[in-house]
Amino acid sequence: MSDLMDQISAQLMQLQEQKLFRKRRVVDGPQGPLLTIDGKPTLAFSNNDYLGLANHPALIAAARDGLERFGVGAASSALISGHSSECEALEIALAGFVGMPRALHFSNGYMANMGVIPALVGPGDLVLSDRLNHACLIDGARLSGAEFRVYPHNDVAKVEQQLAKSTHPRKLIITDGVFSMDGDIAPLPELLALCEKYDAWLLVDDAHGFGVLGPQGRGSLAHFGLASWRVLYMGTLGKAAGVSGAFVAGDATLIEWLVQRARTYVFTTASPPMLASALLATLKLLETEDWRQQHLRQLVQQLHDGLATLPWQLLPSETAIQALVVGDNQLALDLMADLLAQGIWVPAIRPPTVPKGTARLRISLSAAHTTEQVDQLITALHAAAAKYFAGEDGKAPALQSKEKIEEAS
Question: What is the pLDDT of residues 48-74, one digit of tens each?
Fold first, then answer.
């Protein structure tokens, strides 16, 4: 017992030495641009509440109404007695919102991908995965037992090479719609064209695109104007939608298969109906108000203009996710601490969440942010850059070149 605990203690110490140790911070009050973190008021650019709906009065009222009608818990799996009329209404509404025949609600996005992929493919089949995909796609692919191959980020030519030589009975391409740490958008039209050409499926994890991209926030498929029975679309409901959970939408036959065979759906207690009530309110807001997406796009442009002269690279992104790559783990932590000392919280993201050598500040913009708050962040980052700017060569400590960053990613 002591040897086992000594090993774990040593591994924890190693994480600290490598500047990879993670620390939770206690947040008080509702999510929003202004949070109380560890007891201190803070301007936050840290959460995924991209439309500022997590504390919206309409969602709170709908959840309260659902609580009165359905109580607190679902108390059973959906296939026993946990599938409420409210969840049924939500699935119908979600399918209609993203323009697909049918949708299936999951407790969260991780569980959705962990259930969908093994239900579609297994030993003898092929899964092709973008190198920067979220962990839940990677874990779902490994769990399936299918042959798992990783292609370079957004490299459509490499995907076609793999598909062209494949003799697998089932082939599945899996990709984020919007990549969670870079903020760029997957080449979905090109990937779907390859699926059509080589008889494959495409699973799009649109956790960071749903609610943000496309007309009225209908997602990355709508952003490109795509529709196909070959696509399974996964959207999460705890980010731009402001509540919790996830859904998978697609061809009605495929969705029925998931009802029967997605283990993370079959063998888990259903989500509380009051969450479905709140999400129905979200969809009404998305369908009737699009000013939030417009304001968010304006904030993205403001940030890019304001940080253009920094010595660190702000990755190109038209989404709410803005990554300021600094390279060094310790520098990312120091910058986070400097900003926090000024009352601004931007999380430092380090390996293994991002590739080695690409540690960064992940700036999350929200439609709830004001232009003045974004200006405050811009000013603080310029002050931090001046602090770390050193030497006549015009480079900041531990700053990596754009070429090295691209090579690492």
Answer: 999 999 999 999 999 999 999 999 999
Q: Active-site residue among 239, 295, 366, 369?
A: 239
| Interacting residues of 128 by C-beta distance below 8 A, sequence separation 6+ | 149, 150, 151, 159, 162, 163, 171, 172, 173, 174
153 catalytically annotated: no
Query: Is 239 in the active site?
Result: yes
Give the Cα separation of 10 and 12 in Å (integer): 5
One-letter amino acid at 139 equals: D
Q: Any alpha helices (H) in 307-401, and if so which ranges?
A: 329-341, 371-388
Structure tokens at 167: 């003799």
Q: Which position among 208, 223, 295, 369 bears the catalytic label?
A: 208
Tokens of 232: 């399974």
State yes or no: is 197 an active-site residue: no
Domains and CATH numbers, the chain: 27-54+291-389+397-408 (3.90.1150.10), 71-288 (3.40.640.10)
**Whole-number Å distance between alpha carbons of 84 and 328:** 49
SS3 content of the chain, % helix, strand, coil (to 5): 45, 20, 35
Residues 184-206 have pLDDT tens digits of 999 999 999 999 999 999 999 99
Cα within 13 Å of Cα(259), Cβ side: 17
Residue spans of the chain under pLDDT 70: 1, 390-409
pTM: 0.90
Which of 46, 84, 129, 180 does the annotation list as catalytic?
A: 180
pLDDT in tens, 321-352: 999 999 999 999 999 999 999 999 999 999 98
Give Cα separations from 361 to 166, 345, 350, 385 (angstroms).
39, 10, 9, 13
